[in-house]
């Protein structure tokens, strides 16, 4: 939390939702193997867009923490990554 740069924000912004998706897997799908979980996501694209949306909550938490610490460049990177994830989610929702 001491650094304030755009690259760190982008890295955090792209990693946090991945961790969020894994957390969702552990919370709701732990009876399935990780491979089965991804097969279900591949078959049901609407489920994938919903899970990505939930995973973006991790970015919202990070964004809030960095804004409150006045690390604006890092927060900007997190926001950019969140917007990219949101566009990907919309693409899955509309075109898949």
The biggest sheet, with number of strands, parallel, antiparallel or mixed sense and barrel status, is: none
Indicate the structural class.
mainly alpha
Percent range for β-strand residues: under 5%
Helix content: over 70%
Descriptive overview:
This protein is mainly alpha-helical. It has one domain (6-95). The protein is built from four helices and no strands. Helix 1 crosses helix 4 and helix 3 packs antiparallel against helix 4. It is elongated. The N and C termini lie far apart (38 Å). 27% of the residues are buried. The model has no long low-confidence stretch (mean pLDDT 88).
Fold blueprint:
Elements: H1 6-28, H2 34-43, H3 45-68, H4 72-95
Entry summary:
Helix content is 84%, strand content 0%. It is mainly α.
Please give a handful of descriptors for the protein shown.
96 residues, mainly alpha, 4 helices
């Amino acid at each position: 939390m001491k650094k304030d740069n755009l690259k760190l924000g982008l890295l955090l912004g792209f990693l946090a939702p991945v961790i969020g998706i894994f957390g969702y897997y552990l919370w709701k799908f732990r009876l399935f193997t990780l491979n089965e979980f991804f097969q279900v996501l591949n078959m049901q694209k609407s489920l994938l867009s919903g899970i990505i949306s939930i995973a973006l909550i991790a970015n919202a938490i990070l964004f809030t923490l960095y804004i409150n610490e006045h690390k604006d460049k890092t927060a900007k990177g997190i926001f950019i990554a969140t917007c990219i994830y949101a566009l990907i989610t919309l693409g899955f929702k509309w075109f898949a």
